[in-house]
Amino acid sequence: MPIRPLPFALLAVLAALSASAQVPASPLGPLSPTTGLVLRDDVVRALIQESSGDRIHDGVQRLSLIARDSLEGYSEAAAWTKAAAEAAGLQDLHLEAMKDGPQWRATRGELWVAGPHRYRVTSYADLPMSLASGSGSFEGTDLELVDVGLGAQDADYAGKDVKGKVVLSRGNPGATLRTAVVKLGAVGVVSSYSTPPWNEAHRRDGDFPDQVGWAGVPRSLIPQGMRTPFLFMVSERQASELRAQLREGPVKVDVSVATQAPTGHLSIVSGVIPGTREGEEVVLTAHLDHYKPGADDNASGSATLLELVRTYTTLIRQGVLPPPVRTLRVLWLPEFEGTREWFSHHGADPVRRVAQFNFDMLGASLTRAHSRFQVSYTPDWNGSFVNAVSESTVAFMNRFNGVAYPPRKEFRIGSVTGSRDPMDAHMERYSRGSDHQLFNDHGIPGVAFATWPDDGYHTSGDRPENVDPTQLHRAAFAGLASITVAAWAEGTGALELARLVAVHGVRRVAEDEFRARSDLAATPAAQLPGFVRLARAGVRAGYQREKDALRSCLALGAPAEPVKAMVRALETAEEQALKRVEAEARTRGVSLKEPAPSEAERRARAFVPVRVKGQELASFDELERHAAPEAKARVDAVKAAMSAAATALRERGESELRFYQLADAVASYADGKRSVADIRDAAHAEYGYVFPVDALVELFGLLEQGGIMTRGR
After folding, report:
1. I need a labelling partner for 327 at 20 to 30 A (CA). Which of 62, 105, 152, 515 fits?
2. CA–CA distance, 233 with 231 (Å, rounded to integer)
3. Mean pLDDT value of segment 468-480
């Protein structure tokens, strides 16, 4: 029987059907019984197998050759990153110029011992970070070197004349500059300081005697009209040699420093993987600036972003992934400063930014640097689906990578040139200290990926050889798995995500109730009447966080009715949890009746702060620097309260970064709905510490006076 040709219209329909059949399906699916993720198992395998820690390590080595804390060095790194991102497939790539200002650069920096056996101690040419950024020019010979110990207090200088001389210090360089140079007339400082306060729990000066610390000369420290001093950084071993020579007799040094501060600007490298839905973004950030070598911090994060881009564009081109629903906005920028400036230009863009993922210090070897991989939660006041996504990703990675030779080879996340260290990833309660804090302060749920601690942090020991390609691969996968959910979720996939949020929320609110009841059990009877309120507030805060996380799935396109049903289930569970807490209190013989409020409590309940539009990123530190003299007592009271809180949290074993810029962390709770008393209760739920209500009233009063806050209704 002869075959008749098909009509043209039918051929066109079949061609269209064939083309549509080739469009890859959404990477999201029901919760996988194998992985515990809402990503399809084949997508998980593709993300692992396509990404590479070895490629990332190549990028780390390249960036580590550049001193990214000077204008020329940063510009070179930005140009290289832009070219690499273009080769990786990022679109709309451009450099966004930041505002012009003085940009420090050095052309020479040498420190010599003059005699009798003249030798060079250190030089900018050999180790750029040995000359602190911001140092001023200076030429001098036969300058006397004076050891001032810590160099922070007047007592360190008793009986010592340092005017016109160079001081040798092992204390904080800022304090030494303030006392030795600004107050007593020294011409410069040689310092062996290497450990910032927030890292003292992991490393002390002298633990690694050949490491050189990283420091700067703050412009704000030097009075107007005064010559900017120089600051050389040396290792503890070098400082010990100098002190040994001083014990034998006077030591003279020669100093030759040539620096400039030309007007110029740094730039933000920005590009996108375009999404199919207009006006929605997921933001990925890594800070590009740092000293040389600065391998883990933060060549690792910058190079990882390049690999994330390459992995996505490759899988989209191969048809494994469809284009994302939401645009991926990728930013390489100067830490904090660049993010603040980016928000000043783009904070009011008509774009809904559903999540932000920050990549900072990702590759430290778990064994060589005594580190571990961690992912931070968002703050409790900024509950989001990203927390459950991060939890499920961490659980999956640990389960299939907790041994050196896991049986499921397709789920092994390692690298050809990397270690076989067992996986040891952790979820950490909200900590600050990198750019994710600024996104959270702006209301955008921000998650941070990091390896912490790191024995080489902010020292010359932060070198590529201490960065593990396997750890880089794991960090890359953690980012890919989380970002894929945030950028591709819609419709059914967003509903499956809501179910994941509900499952993980059950565990988190159980932990909140456990903490509340444990605290009740440990509280002395005399303090119980006031503490019951805090216990109840802690439970409510946990449930509110998880309800907010569920509602965040609505913005991704999850159907409203099922999500509302999950929220109602949480509300029912919250009532039951509160009854259990109250029953716990009754077993201690505590009345649930609120005690009469004090005057400070009444003021706190009446004060409902809300952040002024455009001041989302203003900080208490800024306000303190510009506070009027008559406000000093109030500022000091707030600082004392925050210092006491930090001491208490430190003694309880909390990470130092948990209370970094603590006043700003507490201020971020101001939403125009919570009173200062409510913020006190919510901050207790987050940190497990009772902030004095009178100090919080002062904090928000000062922020109001500074134009950062106003009073809501």
Report:
1. 62
2. 7
3. 98
